[in-house]
Design brief:
- Chain A: It holds the Pfam family BPD_transp_2.
- Chain A: It comes from Marinimicrococcus flavescens.
- Chain A: GO terms for molecular function: branched-chain amino acid transmembrane transporter activity.
- Chain A: InterPro entries: ABC_transp_permease, LivM-like.
- The complex is a heterodimer of chains A (about 350) and B (about 450).
- A two-stranded antiparallel sheet of chain A has the order 1-4. In chain A, strands 2-3 form a two-stranded antiparallel ribbon.
- The mean pLDDT of chain A is about 90.
- Chain A is built from 14 helices and 4 strands.
- In chain A, helix 3 packs antiparallel against helix 10 (about 230-255) and helix 7 crosses helix 8 (about 205-215).
- Chain A is mostly helical and about 350 residues long.
- Chain A has a domain at about 45-265.
- Chain B is of the alpha/beta class and about 450 residues long.
- Helix content of chain B is about 45%, strand content about 15%.
- In chain B, the strands form 4 sheets. Chain B has a 7-stranded mixed beta sheet, with helices on both faces. Chain B has a two-stranded parallel ribbon with strand order 1-2. In chain B, strands 3-4 form a two-stranded parallel sheet.
- In chain B, helix 2 (about 40-60) packs across helix 11 (about 290-300), helix 3 (about 80-90) runs parallel beside helix 4 (about 105-115) and helix 12 (about 315-340) packs across helix 13 (about 345-355).
- The model of chain B is unreliable at about 5-25 (pLDDT under 50).
- The chains are: A mainly alpha (about 350), B alpha/beta (about 450).
- At the A-B interface, helix 3, strand 4, helix 12 and helix 13 of A face strand 2, helix 3, helix 4 and helix 6 of B.
């Protein structure tokens, strides 16, 4: 009933090619934007912003990064955590050298370092495919992990080997360091994530994105049609790493405030990969849904016994949370192997035909 | 239809649960960041039990501190810095009086936040060594010793074994450590001492994800043949290292761990081979103390403790947790005395820590005579640099293997001051101390 396109005519090619051709979708998006930009800052408390919204958005961006590579270009990577780390350490070094520069700019710039590293580790992708490529990127993960641990220059020879975020400003507002308000950090994260999601959605709908999908679906056919495989694959690695790098820099600068090499371990890579798979390969919306599921659900589960007034040990709750989330992942993948994005599509189709399904 | 009913029921339940249980505001709220899961649970569980049980005992026996009950809440961090920060964020709004992160990584993240949120951090003998500089870090406390005190104490102990500091020249000392903030913290001091006394320092880092497989490190130890081995290990790393050392027949009495490498379950799995293994300590082990007997009576017997069995009470790391809670309780008590009010807040507790003075007489009063050396914290010195002793594993339990002795405070103190200056330099703008002393 509500969700029906009857009567919405497209009278130009531009309208026909719009990302959201349906009015209802546009209204929905505007509502989400309003909630994110107005309702959350006005209504939410620090805990909600700090522990749920900021990490959710950052992980969503990292998932978009990996989704570009795995979902769109069909190249499996287990090095996401390390590429995030490259962004974080690059941003840390940049802000050491240029303390006066707008920190948002530095966060974006650090993505280029990550892109460079991703480019290098993407080189074997022309020859190695599938699981074998995953193993090659796993090597990147371990190698970079080792670098973060062993190269003292990266963490300014800090005795504990950690990077600690100094107080930095952008546009006269303190954005990083202990004195930055959660709200300021949230707005910065939100702005960057929205901007980069918009860029990504344009990228995947254009020539580049289409060439990635061609490579994903059948690389020999794509090659025969004139796609240069190496260039396309390397571009996918570079862009994906760029996104992951920015996400990593945001993670340390706008969320955690300090990090060690272990913050970018293989666990993070898997976490982001799960987000992509649960959310739906090859879907930007899915990246957000996957990030929400994997990040927010355990927090909700942990909060449940306390809100119910049950006295359950923290460790027990943790164990239960592990089991529940694991079980749900399996259940969802059985029920819908293409993830939340596909579920959402099915739901939309149902809404279209409701109440007279055919 | 049954599904729909079930869903409706679940929804109703969720709505009913939406109204959160109202916290009792009059309580002294002490969140405990603990870890009973993950690879570090082996070390984390006894500490969590000790911390919890002492505070619970105060509630049961005395009705809290100064007549105000303590609200204890555990938050599971899994020794993971991200989860630790999540715990911090989720509990700080409830009026937390003090944080014990029990992880150097989490401590490092909380240090800059402490002065902004005005909640003190008690990192008992771990965390950032330089935090002992109270003038720079008014909100951080690391009694009774810093890692650098520990490292210097081990070197002093080795020197005593060899017959003086001069005898260290030409010796080879191996340092095996968890390759994280925790294990790296003492390296600058060990290197400085190596320069001063002419021993050679050989480092064996153990990555956190490979701590249960140390054969390559110990193969290198066998090749390098160090005269002594020093260990900064935690969690599953400790029992593995002790086992590997026993396997290559390293002389165990020359293998010395820091106080965190001294869990009973760290040495026990290696069986006979672990006999002779030594670690530092700064408190007594065993259950023969009045306060610990009270824990057994008031908490464990009533089934309010999570300990697996009563004989776990009094183990080394359990007592460490007790000591941690003694510091918390005494700081709160001091704060109550200073301010004259019963329901103190986090700012008062910081003052309480800064004026903490646990004397022999006070130790006797709280039933811990001889458990630890008296501790006094001042505005300048947030650590105390207390005496330590070396304990040795006899195959069944830890036994003292030395007298109490002082760490090399004269060497450590200038280095700490330098490190604090470096920290401030690296973290500009660092807030000036605004809190008055006393």
């Amino acid at each position: 009933m509500l969700y029906r396109e009857t009567g919405q005519f497209r009278t130009s090619y531009a309208a026909d090619q719009a990302i959201f051709p349906l009015r209802q979708d546009r209204i929905g998006l505007a509502a989400i934007a309003l909630v994110a930009a107005l309702a959350v800052p006005l209504l939410a408390d620090d805990f909600f912003i700090n522990t749920i919204m900021i990490p959710f958005l950052i992980f969503a961006l990292a998932s978009i990064g990996l989704n570009l590579l795995t979902g769109y270009a069909g190249l499996l990577s287990l090095g996401t955590g390390a590429f995030m780390g490259v962004g974080a350490y690059a941003c840390y070094k940049l802000t050491t050298f240029f303390p006066e520069v707008n920190v948002l700019l530095l966060i974006l710039l650090s993505g280029f370092f990550s892109a460079g590293i991703g480019f290098v580790f993407g080189l074997p992708s022309l020859r190695i495919k599938g699981f074998y490529l995953a193993v090659a990127t796993l090597a990147a993960q371990f190698f970079l992990d080792w670098c973060f641990n062993r190269i003292g220059w990266l963490y300014n020879y800090n005795a504990s080997g950690a990077i600690e975020v100094p107080t930095r400003e952008a546009f006269g507002i303190v954005l990083t360091g202990p004195t930055a308000t959660p709200l300021a950090r949230y707005m910065a994260v939100l702005a960057l994530v929205v901007l980069m999601t918009w860029l990504a959605s344009n990228l995947v709908r254009g020539r580049i994105g289409r060439s990635w999908m061609m490579v994903r679906d059948m690389d020999i056919a794509a090659e025969l049609m004139g796609i240069r495989l190496l260039r396309t694959k390397l571009l996918a690695f570079a862009v994906s790493s760029f996104y992951c790098g920015v996400a990593g820099a945001m993670m340390v600068f706008l969320w955690l405030g300090a990090a060690e090499a272990s913050s970018f371990g293989i666990n993070v890579s898997f976490q982001v990969l799960f987000m992509v798979i649960i959310g739906g390969l090859g879907s930007l919306l899915g990246s957000f849904m996957g990030a929400a599921f994997i990040w927010i659900l355990p927090i909700v589960i942990r909060a449940v016994p306390a809100t119910l007034g049950l006295d359950i040990g923290a460790a027990t709750v943790e164990h239960v949370s592990f089991m529940l989330v694991g079980g749900l992942i399996i259940f969802i993948l059985i029920a819908e192997p293409h993830g939340f994005a596909r579920l959402w599509q099915v739901a939309k189709q149902k809404m279209r035909t409701w109440p007279f399904p055919y | 239809m049954r599904l729909r009913q079930a869903l409706l029921g679940a929804a109703a339940l969720a709505v009913a649960a939406g109204a959160p249980a109202a916290p009792v505001l009059a309580d002294l709220y002490v969140p405990l960041l603990t870890y009973r899961t993950g690879a570090y649970a082996g070390s984390g569980i006894p500490i969590a039990d000790g911390m919890h049980d002492y505070l619970a005992m105060l509630n049961e026996r005395d009705g809290g501190i100064g007549g105000v009950r303590i609200a204890i809440e555990e938050c599971e961090t899994g020794y993971d810095a991200q989860k630790g920060v999540e715990c911090y964020e989720s509990t700080k709004g409830k009026g937390a009086l003090v944080y014990n992160p029990y992880s150097t990584g989490i401590t490092l993240q909380l240090i800059p936040k402490a002065s902004v949120d005005k909640i003190p951090v008690l990192s008992m003998a771990y965390g950032l060594s330089a935090a002992a500089e109270g003038e720079t870090f008014p909100w951080i406390f690391n009694p009774p010793d810093t890692y650098w005190d520990g490292a210097s104490a081990i070197i002093r102990y080795i020197a005593d074994q060899e017959g003086g500091l001069d005898a260290l020249k030409g010796k080879k000392i191996g340092y095996i450590y968890l390759d994280a903030g925790y294990g790296r913290e003492p390296i600058p001091l060990l290197e400085q001492l190596a320069q001063n006394y002419g021993y050679e320092l050989v480092q064996y880092p153990v990555p956190g994800n490979q701590m249960q497989n140390q054969s390559s490190q110990w193969l290198n130890v066998r090749r390098d043949r160090p005269d002594y081995m020093v260990m900064w290990g935690w969690g599953a790393m400790n029992p593995t290292a002790v086992k590997e050392a026993a396997k290559i027949r390293f002389p165990m009495e020359k293998f010395i761990g820091v106080w965190w490498a001294g869990g009973d379950d760290d040495a026990r799995p290696a069986g006979e081979g672990a006999k002779g293994y030594k670690t530092l300590n700064f408190h007594g082990v065993g259950a023969d103390y009045g306060a610990i007997q009270d824990i057994l009576e008031h908490v464990v017997k009533k089934g309010q403790s999570k300990v697996a069995s009563p004989d776990k009470v009094g183990e080394n790391l359990y007592n460490r947790g007790v000591m941690n809670s003694v510091f918390i309780a005494e700081a709160i008590r001091t704060a109550q005395e200073l301010t004259g009010k019963k329901e103190v807040d986090a700012v008062d507790v910081r003052r309480g820590f800064e004026n903490l003075n646990i004397t022999e007489a006070r130790l006797k009063e709280i039933g811990l005579e001889g458990f630890m050396k008296p501790l006094e914290i001042t505005c300048e010195d947030h650590s105390g640099h207390n005496p330590v002793y070396v304990q040795q594993w006899n195959g069944q339990r830890w036994e003292p293997a030395s007298e109490w002795f002082e760490p090399m405070t004269d060497v450590v103190r200038p280095l700490l001051e330098q490190a604090a200056r470096d920290y401030v330099q690296a973290n500009q703008p660092w807030p000036e101390r605004a809190e008055p002393c006393g």
